[in-house]
Write a sequence for this structure.
């Protein structure tokens, strides 16, 4: 055994790291769902709202948890990896669910496509699957898939899906610069922001086409609906015969899709669910009576 001493973690030297505000082991979850779907958590990035996500996972129990892609950001791994204590809590909460009997299914996305070769295997009790058909309590069959597979079909401007608000802000600054340079050269005004508005219109069109293409994929398999992520826009809507459901993300909106015991599906916006410090006592008391699983 002596040869494996390096496997045993050593106690860290120096001062203890500051404790985070998140309590890793609350008494018990206060909300019960049949199924929880989350996606686009982007663990490994600064943008990941890990503290809120760990809190959501700790307080919400379920029979089945679907992790619908872009859970770990492997692209970020190649650049600057960011891993915080809160992100450890997220992993711990997922593993705790496995230990407590929750079925956890991970469907890799494009940012965690390094997991795709492992589809069909189970790691630490987490099933890895390219896509999955989920049957709701009321018998509807839903295709669960990340959604990036169709980026090639939605051929135009798929880079726009990644155009974050920061890029837009930079572009507006750039617009000012372009304007003053052009003025110095005696050229007429050309608005980059107007061009960007056009691009945003394209982005809206991209979202529309994404929804249509995903709905068609479910229809082709004669399914009742599709659950996806990828575009960071939580949504439930009927598109023809198909129910389109998008889980949203944990970078901006902090949303999850949940199914109750009767098969009713809804979007939870966790940041909006959190009590303000003043109302915390009352809110916790109300949540103490658990719903039937
Ligand atoms: Mn994605």
């Amino acid at each position: 055994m002596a040869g494996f001493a390096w496997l045993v973690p050593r106690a860290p030297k120096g001062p203890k790291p500051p404790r985070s505000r998140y309590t890793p082991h609350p008494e018990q979850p206060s909300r019960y769902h049949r199924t929880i779907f989350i996606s686009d958590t982007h663990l490994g990035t600064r943008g990941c709202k890990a503290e809120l996500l760990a809190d959501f996972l700790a307080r919400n129990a379920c029979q089945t948890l679907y992790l619908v892609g872009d859970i770990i950001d492997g692209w970020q791994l190649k650049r600057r990896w960011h891993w915080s204590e809160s992100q450890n809590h997220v992993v711990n909460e997922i593993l705790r669910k496995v230990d407590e009997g929750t079925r956890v299914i991970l469907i890799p996305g494009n940012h965690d496509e390094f997991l795709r070769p492992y589809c069909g295997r189970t790691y630490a009790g987490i099933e890895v699957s390219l896509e999955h058909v989920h049957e709701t309590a009321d018998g509807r069959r839903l295709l669960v898939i990340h959604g990036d597979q169709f980026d090639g079909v939605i051929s135009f401007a798929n880079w726009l899906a990644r155009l974050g608000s920061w890029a837009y802000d930079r572009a507006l600054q750039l617009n000012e610069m372009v304007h003053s340079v052009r003025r110095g050269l005696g050229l007429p005004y050309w608005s980059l922001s107007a061009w960007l508005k056009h691009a945003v219109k394209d982005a809206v069109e991209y979202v529309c086409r994404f929804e249509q293409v995903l709905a068609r994929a479910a229809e082709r398999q004669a399914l009742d609906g599709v659950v996806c992520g990828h575009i960071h826009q939580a949504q439930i809507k009927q598109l023809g015969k198909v129910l389109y459901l998008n889980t949203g993300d944990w970078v901006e909106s902090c949303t999850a899709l949940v199914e109750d015991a009767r098969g009713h599906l809804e979007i939870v916006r966790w940041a909006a669910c959190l009590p303000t410090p003043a109302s915390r006592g009352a809110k916790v008391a109300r949540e103490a009576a658990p719903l039937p699983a």
Q: What stands out?
A: The first helix runs from residue 50 to 59.
